[in-house]
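#lab-general

N.A. 3:47 PM
ok so I finally got the sequence cleaned up, no stray characters, all 71 residues accounted for. can someone with queue access submit it? mine expired

B.Y. 3:52 PM
send it over

N.A. 3:53 PM
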Amino acid sequence: NDHVTYTGGGADFEARTVFYVGVDNVEAALARAEELGGTRLSGPHPKPDSDLRVGFFRDPQGNVVGVAGIA
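B.Y. 4:20 PM
back already:
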C-alpha cells in the first residue's frame, strides 16, 4: 500500500501496541520480569539527552511491555 506510514521499527517489524510501566529501577524490573517467566528483549537503554532509561520484555502471554525510569 503506497499510503501506509511506518513508525518505530519500520515495515519489517511486527505491528503491536506497547505500553510502558514507570519503575524506579529499569534493570531490576527487567530482571524481575525474567524471574517471573518473561523474556528480556532489550535494555536498559539511555534516552539521548535525558535521564530516562527504557527497556522491553515479552511476558509469558506474548505481550511486549516497556519499562521506563529515571537513571
